[in-house]
Amino acid sequence: MDIKKTTDSLRTASQKLALQNACQKNAALNAVADALDKNRASIIAANATDVKNARAAGISESIIDRLLLDDKRINGIIASLREVIGQTDPVGEEVAGWKTPNGMTIRQIRVPLGVVALIYENRPNVTVDAFSLAYKSGNAILLRGSSSSYVSNVEIVRIIKEALAGVDGGVPEAIELVEVRDHDHSDVDQILNAVGMIDVCLPRGGKKLIQNVVQNARVPVIETGSGVCHLFIDESADLEMACRIAENAKIQRPSVCNAIECIVVHNAIAAKFLPMLEKTFAGRVKLHADEKAIAFLESAIPATEEDFGNEYLDYECCIKIVDSIEEAIKYINSHNTKHSESIISQSRANTRLFQSMIDASCVYVNASTRFTDGGEFGFGAELGISTQKLHARGPMGIKVLTTTKYLIDGEGQIR
């Protein structure tokens, strides 16, 4: 990849987009949505090749689930795109404004970041999500997907570019896909070192990918996190509710970052709750239990130190017993990835303490962590879940791809 040539083209595209209004950008995105709908057969065919190759490579079915596209998921992709179209264009929004004592007017407005790079794994729906958010917010985007989803991504980007080219004012140069070669990550190194050419880089994937980007990037990074999420069952919890939420948060889609990986149980209700949980899971989840918890479970295996803080991304979960909510908070804060945590409790004091003291981007009370998602939060699509504290935190929607600048109008003032 010629990184300078690629980013120069993207920079020019971002400058064109910066001059467009919401109607122009929405018309282009509507054309893309229509094209995705029209070409769904070719997308599914391309995806079938990726899935076939993934299975031949021995990739687990839980990961293949993240890769898979079918009519239902394409419907979801298009619906998310339509929702982004319906959102207010953030570019030009006046965040603040005031007049100084000497008569100058100062306005703080939102502007695009410019050229965005996304390095991501497996999920081809991210290709559309990231593009739509970038385009609507006036940014050009460089996509570096994984080899496992490359055939799908090539087809999706082809459809997007053709749709943009067919719209008056469309900017097909605003999206580029890196050609991926097996076991060759030189392109990633180029992206991470493209100082002055790329304004921000976002990693979205597993722990290894994210650490590589965070540790080696010389360009600004918005860190998305792996999801070591916990569910704490308080002593005052409705245990039937706790079982339902645990089942949803662990089993509905275990390969995603907002699925729980550890269930923390108050000792006072462990003897009653854990057999209920085991019955709810009905052999569908491999349980790794600590020394106290294993006494209440028939099918669990002893947990090792490596289980606590581990992201299984599969039908596995560890169980930890604590003696107080304070111990639960301390344990979770020392083993989580600052993603999503939940407490099941009927105590207002305990739920407020939990929400105040847990260090994570999303903290739930009596609800599944599976709701940590841009679509569920009303953002339409998302770039990922930011687990850092600067610029963005939690599900990242359209405004994350903007920054601000100050516009100052005067009448000859000097200092």
Write a brief caption for the model.
This protein is an alpha/beta fold and 415 residues long.
Query: In sequence order, what are the helices and strands, one letter per element?
Result: HHHHHEEEHEHEHEHEHEHEEEHEHEEEE
Average residue-wise pLDDT: 94
Strands in their spatial order, largest beta sheet: 10-9-11-8-7-12-13
Radius of gyration: 23 Å
Protein structure class = alpha/beta
Describe what you observe in this structure.
The structure is a single chain. The protein has 415 residues and is of the alpha/beta class. Helices cover 40% and strands 19% of the residues. The chain has 13 helices and 16 strands. The protein has helices at residues 3-18, 22-38, 40-56, 61-67, 71-86, 125-136, 150-165, 186-192, 207-216, 239-251, 267-281, 325-335, 348-357, and strands at 94-99, 105-112, 115-120, 140-144, 175-177, 200-204, 229-233, 260-266, 286-289, 301-302, 316-322, 340-344, 362-365, 385-386, 394-395, 402-409. The strands form 4 sheets. The protein has a 7-stranded parallel beta sheet, with helices on both faces. The termini are far apart. 48% of the residues are buried.
